[in-house]
Amino acid sequence: MDYMKKVVYHSNYWYNDGLKKAQIRDMSGAILSLKRSLQFNRENIAARNLLGLVYYGVGEVPEALVQWIISKNLRSRDNIADYYIKNVQSSAKELETINLAIRKYNQCLGYCRQNGEDLAAIQLKQVISAHPSFLKAYQLLGLIYLHTEQYSRARQVLRSARRLDTTNDTTMRLLHELTQKRGKSRRKSQRQNQRQKSDAVEYSLGNETIIQPKHSRLKEVAGHLAVANLFVGAAIGAALIWFLVAPAVNQSRSDQMNAQMRAYSDQIKSLEAQVSAQTRTLDNYRASGEQVEADAQQAQTAQDSYERLMQASDRYDGGTTEYAAIADLLLGVTRDSLGESGQALYDELTGNVYPAACDSNFAVGSQALEAANYQSAVDALSKVVRMNSGYNDGQALLYLAQAYRGNGDNDNAKTYFQQVVDNYAGSDYAQAAQTALDEIAQAEAEAASAEGENTEG
Fold first, then answer.
1. Which of 260, 314, 376, 415 is close enough to 368 for a disulfide, judged by CB 3.0 to 4.6 Å?
2. Does one domain contain both 441 and 360?
3. CA-CA distance, 68 to 61, in Å (whole number)?
4. Phi, psi at 212, each rounded to 5°
């Protein structure tokens, strides 16, 4: 068996092991096995797609999408990863809900660092309700319940986490800690009950059993003495009040009123601080909502760019000579939203496709301009300028400006005429552009003068 066969054999072995573990909800073990499979053979499409499904099963949707996109890049046709990606993208509202749940989970981590377990627990319940397979949210909520000694709730939440992933290390450690704490609490309760029983005596009266504290007779005698002392103390106290305490009553009342006023003032300041904190929290929620929308829009842009880039790559690899159609796909790609490999592929395709696409679009635009079909000329020549603004040393810019002028859009016409003048000074194109600018300025001045005369009349 040669080296490559050994590599493929080991990769398939770990894939089968990961598949068995995933079938019994051993998600952590499945992730480890599938990662080992990909270490032996990174192009094992079945292992990579299954790893994405396992990540999706524990609520890690971004990690799942990463694996499926890599799988689709490795094999663009007959790949079930394409179905998985489209299935996730088909519900934009669900994808936005998942993104919001992940952001709320990150906020809960910050609340826990600031000793805000109550607020974190409330928000984690909302996260679990919106994203029921988010394993990390269950684990954090169970940890909070464990920390606040709410053992029954912690047990219920951690059992739900274990159903999602039966052998997760974090879940098992939390369950072990819960068992130890419940045992300590139970032993402490038993010791308290034993101490209470040791302080009491038990005897039978007929068919009834009576439990009575020890030394009850001694306590009864002590109670009588206490009553007698109470009357004596009352007499002495009355004398003290008459001779000593009465002069200080007014001062005591004044001090009490001052203390109450200070307490009321502190309460007012505390309420004002709470209102201010709640206002800041609301502002943070609004800001986080806007950020979530921006992140969702950015993610959608990245996905659309990858889709267009993959379609353009497939057409180019298929040997088609319709470079204009491929260029239309590439013009819809946002390069900054791509990763390093995506940007490299984008640069390679544009370098191979754009020159020929510029020639064909320039020919179409020039013919439309000569035929006075200005809108078609604008559509074709604007693509040329987007692909190569310096095409034919400013000729494309000049023709695009003329098309805008013919279409009645003098603002865009002046913009592109000025670019020709600034970038290609001394050329014939620059002279033609300057002449057109002067004509437009003169026409606007005459129109303004005529309007002024009509106003005066």
1. 376
2. yes
3. 11
4. -135, 140
What's the CA gap between 403 and 408, in Å, rounded? 9
Token pair of 409, please? Answer: 């859009």
| 292: its two tokens | 């979530």
Q: Which residues pair with 332 in a beta bridge?
A: none
Angle 3-23/27-40 helices, nearest 10 degrees?
Answer: 170
Residues 345 and 425 in one domain: yes
Contact status, residue 13 vs residue 46, Cβ threshold 8 Å: no
- The band of 126, judged by pLDDT with boundaries at 50, 70 and 90, is confident
Residue-range definition of the domain harbouring residue 31: 3-90
**Residues 388 and 361 both lie in one domain:** yes
Cα 327 to Cα 108: distance, rounded to the nearest angstrom? 45
Strand partners, 209: 204
Q: How many CB atoms lie within 10 A of CB 435?
A: 11
Q: What is the pLDDT of residues 389-421, one digit of tens each?
A: 899 888 999 999 999 999 889 999 999 999 999
Q: What is the mean predicted confidence (pLDDT) over 263-283?
A: 68
Rg value, the chain, Cα: 40
Based on the fold, state whether residues 349 and 404 are members of the same structural domain.
Answer: yes
| pLDDT score at 310 | 83
Last residue of a domain, one of 90, 124, 141: 90
Asked if the structure places residue 282 within a domain, the reply is: no
- Residue matched to tokens 């260029």: 327
